Amino acid sequence: IYFITANTEDSIQASFYDIAMDNGVVDAQEWKSGLHWLLTHEESWLIIMDNADDPKISLERYFPSCDHGNIMITSRNAELQNVVGQSLELQDMIPDDGIELLLKHAVDKPLSSNEQEQVVQIAKELYYFPLALVQAGAYIKQQKCLLTYLKFLRNEHKQLLEKKLTQSADRYQLSVYATWNLSWGQRSSSSKVLLNICSHLHYEKIPRLLFE
């Protein structure tokens, strides 16, 4: 099983190059070496192209032309249904599952009826999006602010709506950004410096040695 980070052309090609190197292609010079290895390696394999959301990227050029492997694509770009054999549209998380996910990350003790109602309202406010719920839960647990979080969140949404960056953002992006930005505001100056450095690196495989 090979994971391809598919959000940019560079990350796709880097992933294919890694496939070549991981499988002992000692003379690998470019990403096509990984593609060639998949073509000629007749045992079954599975490629998972993750986060293929950019409609400007032509994924077909990265499909090995053979019949001994399979490709799975995860994407928020519905147009990709036209280039694959089968597709499955995942529905939004149902309310009960969203509430359970938020509870898992936000609290570790029994709740009062008022606190339970707050959890329900927060999950609803975030449209039950898993990443937003996890971020919100982590913030609530760290700051111990379950009863006031909804007020903070709505204020953050209000501020975001006043910024131009939200004009092209959908409700998923707004929910995720709002919960992330609340957490960002609580970071220390040194933590923000570290995170800013990390923002220039690929989000996978950041070497620990870099910070030692």
Automatic annotation (TrEMBL):
InterPro entries: P-loop_NTPase. One of its GO terms (molecular function) is ADP binding. Gene3D superfamilies: P-loop containing nucleotide triphosphate hydrolases. This is NB-ARC domain-containing protein. It comes from Lentinula lateritia.
